[in-house]
Design brief:
The complex is a heterodimer of chains A (579) and B (309). Chain A has 579 residues and is α+β, with helices and mostly antiparallel strands. Chain A is built from 15 helices and 18 strands. The chains are: A alpha+beta (579), B alpha/beta (309). Chains A and B meet through loops of A and helix 4 and helix 7 of B.
Chain lengths: 579, 309
């Protein structure tokens, strides 16, 4: 992953995290505020319902007591034949705020019923067995009607005339009209479940306009309220239709006769949440875009000089030591670029100095070597010429013999000089390799065979460990053979007391590896470091060009040569050729 | 004389329902008729019995009982029908003309109710005594048979007692849908009776829904006038009204009782009450009584106080 990508990700993550945090805080605060307002609204409506409930109860009690205290009630109580008052309840109810009114004889027989006139003569068992109705006030009760059962807020009063008694029971239905009398704030609704049957009945869940249309989500709430007989809140539905429902059980004594459900729409909260979500999304998208733009700008500003530096370093690595980086900034990157430029300038200067020094050293070494090599043959030449001069002056009769011997010596030494100069010439004129497919195993076998007599004379045991699967490699067979001869020759020189010479080959990464190992006295690490330097030699004879030529040949073949040696443990030359 | 009735009669031509108006023909002639609303009869100077005292009779039809009672109190009507409630409320000293119990109030099953157990259960569930004492304020008689006691003399032999337990036993094996019945009543005055029958039926395990004027109802609450004081003729008339086979006439009271029992045996008709015609008479009306024991109008002997001689 590039620095620019990382920078972009960091910027984007920072923006998204910031927006998300703000969004979360705003959302949480809004939600808390809404929930508090919601609770207050529901509590207010519950209180309103309870006030309305109490007010209605008071109205009913007052109306029932008024009827019980009337002359009509007394007349009915004392009438020998109450049948003539059969229609009285309806008339009394019509002039009162009561939906339900029954006049019941002291023994519990209905004399007149406003809500169900045809039920006269039937017994109201629940009345006769209870006393203290006046103190009880209004209470909830299931009322049987011609068209079913209803829930009513009921009060009972008694009219006494001597030893005769008349019960007056009156009430109001808890129905949609009662619910419609409740003033509801916007977004709230109130429903009443009348617990009139043993199982849940959807038809008994009513609202101000009739049966509740979407009762299914409310069924568990009603069931729980009836089971637990306690108030609680529950959220039903989802999305814009979500609603907080407060369940208020309505009990009469130990019997639960209904459940009031106060629903408060969560549409506003959902709308606010949706708005926050959209806003947050837009801000996040904006933040990401800004992050991308800033990251791009920052990348351009920060990574461009870094890339330029990387490119400069690559040029240096590729050998262009004079590469420089353009910079105009004064920040750390600019300082780094300027330091880089100074470094490359220093490198170039040092290289120049080094090349100069090496060139001088090479010339000196060449001169020293050349002088050394030439001095050896020159000394016999000088001696021979002086001997010939002395013989010519002192012993003229022997001069011819001396001359013959002297000229022979001179020719031999001149040939030696010529050979030395030829070697130097060969090194200077290393030809370009002529590449062809070569099997190194063949070259190794031939070289070993070539040195067989010398090896036997030096007491060295030859060993060939050749890989039969060795692939052919592109190489100049003549030059590689010369390399092998050089290395074998060196190995023979390294084992004056005899030993073992091993040449082994092996396939390696599609190419080939070849090793020439001896069991000679070995080399120090310093010697190993300088081994391939031209004109360096550890031997008392030689030009010091052999291994330099070897390295030059291998280098021309794009191969590598390395040496591995320790004093007393022999030396291994390892050549790696590409396939 | 201004008369109000609760029925709405569309045509003056026979056969006509209701009491009285067919009885006017002998002494009065129709001079104006608005079907279902009103009729005007004028005295016929050539009547066989001589010209009646009244110059004319204005009859207002389709007048609710309560409105009739009010009109009577306010002097807007001279003769009105009185229902039980109106009778109870009638001011003291008000003149009332009653016929004998010549109206039979009965339940009549339609042919779709084929299960006799269902019909018998309804018959057993009805508490006639409560209806008689409360809703009808003890007017008329509780009826177990088709003919009233004053005509047949053996009406008391027919059982009228309610037996909800036995009724429940009869309908117990029936499935709930089969125990549901629709009850229709023609006259709104009988709504309270129909409702009470529905309440009683519920005790027997029947589900009766009462509704007015439902021709497709399973059972109808009907009022039938007994047109003759002669037992066999009265029974034949009732049988014809209920669509029952006319009983063969025989002279003996036992045969009459047996014939009546046969008519009621399968509970297609359930007699409930025998009721009289009851009229409230205004203070201007003189003479009378203006109705016979059979409820026939005899207005030719009446006159109005203060009217032109």
């Amino acid at each position: 992953m590039t620095f620019g990508t990382r920078l972009l990700l960091v910027f984007t993550a920072a923006v998204v995290a910031s927006v998300g945090l703000v969004e979360w805080l705003v959302w949480g605060t809004t939600r808390d505020a809404f929930e508090r307002a919601e609770t207050q609204r529901v509590n207010a409506l519950v209180a309103q319902f309870q006030r309305e409930f109490a007010r209605r109860g008071a109205v009913i009690v007052r109306a029932v007591n008024g009827i019980a205290a009337s002359d009509t009630a007394v007349n009915i109580a004392i009438a020998p034949d109450p049948a003539r008052y059969y229609g009285e309840a309806a008339a009394l109810a019509a002039s009162s705020p009561l939906d339900l009114l029954e006049l019941v004889a002291g023994e519990g027989t209905i004399i007149s019923s406003a809500e169900w006139p045809a039920r006269f003569g039937y017994k109201e068992e629940w009345l006769a067995g209870t006393t203290g109705w006046k103190a009880r006030g209004a209470f909830l009760r299931r009322e049987e009607l011609p068209d079913g059962v209803t829930l009513a807020l009921t009060a009972v009063s008694e009219a006494h005339a001597g030893d005769r008694k008349l019960y007056v029971t009156g009430g109001q239905r808890l129905d949609r009209e009662f619910l419609s009398s409740l003033v509801l704030p916007e977004g709230m609704r109130v429903l009443l479940y009348r617990n009139l049957s043993s199982a849940f009945s959807p038809g008994e869940l009513i609202g101000p306009t009739g049966a509740a249309a979407d009762s299914a989500p409310l069924v568990p709430i009603v069931t729980q309220a009836l089971r637990e007989a306690r108030e609680f809140n529950r959220i039903v539905g989802g999305g814009a239709a979500a609603e907080t429902v407060h369940a208020l059980p309505l009990a009469s004594g130990k019997e639960l006769l209904g459940v009031l459900l106060i629903g408060s729409s969560r549409r506003e909260l959902v709308a606010i949440e949706s708005s926050l979500y959209v806003t947050g999304l837009l801000v996040a998208i904006g933040g990401i875009l800004v992050g991308i733009a800033v990251a791009w700008w920052a990348t351009a500003r920060v990574t461009r000089p870094v890339r330029a530096l990387a490119a400069g370093a690559a040029k240096v690595a590729a050998g262009n030591w004079g590469a420089t980086v353009q910079t105009s900034s004064a920040d750390e990157i600019g300082q780094l670029a300027r330091a880089f430029n100074r470094m490359t300038q220093e490198l170039v200067a040092q290289r120049e100095r080094l090349v100069q020094a090496e060139r001088v050293a090479a010339w000196r070494e060449l001169a020293r070597r050349l002088a050394h090599e030439l001095k050896n043959p020159l000394f016999p030449l000088q001696i021979t010429v002086e001997n010939m001069r002395r013989a010519h002056d002192a012993v003229p009769e022997q001069f011819e013999e001396v001359f013959r011997e002297g000229t022979g010596t001179l020719l031999a030494e001149l040939a030696n000089l010529k050979q030395i100069i030829g070697r130097f010439s060969d090194f200077a004129k290393m030809p370009a390799p002529e590449m062809q497919s070569v099997n190194l195993n063949d070259l190794a076998s031939e070289a070993m065979k070539l040195f067989q007599p010398q090896l036997a004379q030096a007491g060295i045991a030859p060993r060939l460990e050749l890989d039969p699967q060795l692939p052919p490699v592109p190489a100049d067979p003549e030059q590689i053979a010369r390399v092998l001869r050089n290395l074998i020759f060196n190995a023979i020189d390294a084992m004056p007391q005899g030993g073992a010479l091993t040449v082994r080959t092996a396939a390696q990464n599609g190419g080939a590896r070849m090793e020439v190992a001896d069991t000679g006295q070995g080399l120090t690490s310093e010697e190993c470091d300088r081994l391939f330097t031209p004109y360096y030699t550890t031997k008392t004879h030689g030009t010091g060009l052999g291994l330099a030529i070897v390295q030059s040949v291998i280098s021309d073949h794009k191969g590598r040569i390395a040496v591995e040696s320790e004093p007393g443990k022999g030396t291994i030359f390892r050549i790696e050729m590409v396939g | 004389m201004r008369v109000e009735i609760r029925e709405a009669i569309e045509t003056p031509d026979p056969p006509q329902k209701g009491p009285g108006m067919t009885d006017l023909g002998a002494a009065f002639s129709i001079t104006r008729w608005e079907g279902g609303r009103s009729a005007v009869y004028s005295a016929d100077g050539n009547a066989p019995g001589g010209r009646p005292f009244l110059d004319g009779i204005e009859i207002q039809m389709a007048r609710p009982l309560r409105e009739q009672a009010i009109d009577l109190e306010l002097g807007k009507a001279d003769l009105v029908e009185l229902g039980p409630n109106e009778l109870r409320r009638a001011a003291g000293g008000r003149r009332i003309w009653r016929s004998a119990a010549v109206r039979l109030l009965a339940l009549v099953f339609g042919p779709q109710v084929g299960d006799a157990r269902l019909r018998e259960a309804l018959a057993l569930s009805v508490d006639r005594a409560a209806i008689h004492s409360v809703l009808l304020q003890r007017q008329g008689e509780i009826a177990g048979g088709l003919l009233p006691q004053w005509i047949s003399g053996d009406a008391f032999l027919f059982s009228t007692a309610a037996d909800a337990a036995r009724a429940r036993g009869l309908v117990g094996p029936l499935r709930a849908p089969m125990r549901a019945l629709t009850l229709s009543f023609e006259d709104p005055a009988w709504r309270a009776v129909a409702d009470r029958i529905a309440v009683n039926a519920r005790d027997a395990g029947l589900m009766v829904a009462a509704a007015p004027a439902n021709p497709a109802a399973d059972v109808r609450l009907v009022e039938v006038r007994i047109a003759s004081a002669e037992p066999w003729q009265a029974l034949a008339g009732l049988a014809a009204s209920f669509g029952l086979a006319e009983p063969p006439q025989s002279g003996s009271p036992e045969a009459l009782f047996a014939a009546e029992r046969r008519l009621l045996a399968d509970f297609h008709v359930i007699p409930l009450l025998h009721l009289p015609y009851v009229y409230g008479v205004g203070p201007r009306v003189r003479g009378g009584p203006g109705i016979t024991p059979l409820g026939e109008w005899r207005f030719e002997t009446l006159w109005l106080e203060g009217a032109r001689p």
